[in-house]
Batch of 2 targets.
Target 1
Amino acid sequence: MAAGARRITIHGVPYRLDDEIGYGLHSFVYSARDLSTGQNVAIKIIQFGHRALARATTDSRRQSFWKELDLLLHLQPLNPYVIRVLNWDYREAVGFIVMERGDTFRDTLIETNGSGALLPLPLVKRFWSQMVEAIYYLHRIGIVHADVKPENFIQVGPDGTSLRLIDMGISFRLPPFITSRLKTAAGTPDYVAPELINARFNLGSRSKFGYKSDIWSLGVILYEMAFGERPLQYLGDNSNKISFLGKMRRDLQIPPHPDPLLRNVLRKCLRFNPRRRPTAEMLMGHPYLTSGLAQT
Ligand SMILES: Nc1ncnc2c1ncn2[C@@H]1O[C@H](COP(=O)(O)OP(=O)(O)OP(=O)(O)O)[C@@H](O)[C@H]1O
């Protein structure tokens, strides 16, 4: 669908479609305006037979639409950090999900780190606390996000400091198979836990490992906020990173940081053995979060 001043009506609400702001395996996402209220929204459009999305079949796109929509609607009352769904529709050839719109947290990291700066520590703590809670609410009801990375947190609200999770596309309900996860991780293994790469990974107990894999990914994001780069970034291309993770047997070394509590969280989240990583609930109770901003 071409961008630029197209109008669509969904359940009686008129929208003006503006620019394409993202796309995935099954969908295109547009910025749009709700013409009845003036609210800026994002509309995810899944054209079930779209040829440009060649890797997916029509049926798989239909399934993907329903899976994502079902999960999003289920989570609305259960998790305040999941992107709010404002409207949706399923038609013969196309599905729509209208959501609140924001900017991806990835853009903030690029902007800040690209200019050689770091996020202020109080802001790091504010973002971290929301990320941990977002994952806590998912884990509490048995869902592993499985693709936790800055691209999948959207900043909303007047000052952009409220976070929302998007992209529930590969939750625990799909078999957490290594190759499909790596493909969906936007081409980077930077956030993928070593147990998902390690050839000795015990597939029989993978669901137990799944929760802790989200904790690893959260740790990588905290590391990136704290140090301005990801722990494996220095390794360069993806094959080096995958090889490093595959051979890894020890905990990641964490450089010195002015906040010892933040560093302690990082050490725990980035432990090689998933069983030794904290749960999301434990992270919420960690002194880094409970001791207040005065500690930063
Ligand atoms: N609510 C939103 N506000 C702003 N940008 C968004 C929003 N939702 C999605 N995007 C943008 O669109 C991109 C793709 O969205 P999303 O990750 O949901 O699709 P996907 O899951 O990759 O697609 P698929 O499930 O079809 O593979 C995101 O990376 C983000 O840049």
Target 2
Amino acid sequence: MTNQNVIISDPRSGFDSSLLSFSPAVPGPLPQPGRFIAVPAMKSFKNIDSAEAARITALLDSMRASSPTRRSSETENLKSWIVCHPSALDMFDEIINASKGKQIVVFLDYDGTLSPIVDDPDKAFMTSEMREAVRGTAKYFPTAIVSGRCRAKVFNFVKLSELYYAGSHGMDIKAPVKGRNYRKGNNQTVLCQPAREFLPMIDEVYKSLVEKTKSIPGAKVENNKFCLSVHFRRVEEKRWTELAEQVKSVTKEYPRLRLTQGRKVLEVRPSIKWDKGKALEFLLESLGYANSNDVLPIYIGDDRTDEDAFKVLRDRGQGFGILVSKSPKETNASYSLQEPLEVMYFLNRLVEWKRSSLQQRYQRK
Ligand SMILES: O=P(O)(O)OC[C@H]1O[C@H](O[C@H]2O[C@H](CO)[C@@H](O)[C@H](O)[C@H]2O)[C@H](O)[C@@H](O)[C@@H]1O
């Protein structure tokens, strides 16, 4: 079916079951009937075929679900979820025990992990207390920020030159110029930009998206250098389908780009096999820990895109993924933290533990 209006249902509503087979590439929150009551059951799509309409619907549903509002009936679900994904604060001693004889390496997502989610992406500042916690962490452990934002923008928020930065979902990686000698005398800037050839295409698509979406109040297109974010957060929900259609009308001309979703955001990015998981592996290798048992990576993130990194850790059987979430989500992470404040507590505990164990070692000498 092409070039005609397609009526498609919410996958949970029971309409049009032929379209239920599409599932997002990454896991989402546990399906809970009745949870999406504000969502219209049917959406009307113009000028796109049914398969495409199903894909857009799935992306939008998945996007809604990644920023859910907690209802009292969900408290029970949360309790049972926590049993499988206990708080990293409660499991702190287990994490420390697992790190015996190993170098802890810390990976931190930015939005929703170090800074709270806010309406205006340009105002997602981290607190100075959080900055001190990250600074302390980097003093004792190699520490990387892994973000969907472009590297320069996330650096402007974090403002710590001693960190590794992987911007654009890991497609732009840089090590601190004066890197610390963790393992192999790494004092050079490591640079990895696997999507370089896409830069002109991304710029072109950015301009088209700005033009196409300018009539939709609240829509915002963010240029993250190797990828783009189209923000839905300040758009009236009844216009989300229209916005998604506009995005699709641009990206369908670029088969080498793909669409993924995050927290009230659609991301346009190159279809290359590179993601936050690959960035984590690249950074471990750069630090001299490829195929090594002497390392314990800890990755903390809140977003769908962080699942790629959680999965790498799970597949390697190494380290811990920690999901920042207040509601139950299907995840490859081992542990959870509820919000950025808890992330800060966790980082401070890591720092305190390391400081006191170094002190004890010094006193024994
Ligand atoms: O990988 P991250 O560091 O988590 O970046 C993912 C996206 O984060 C930002 O958007 C999200 O946070 C905004 C500010 O709180 C919020 O307004 C938006 O709704 C969220 O999706 C950032 O603006 C995007 O470019 C990143 O891709």
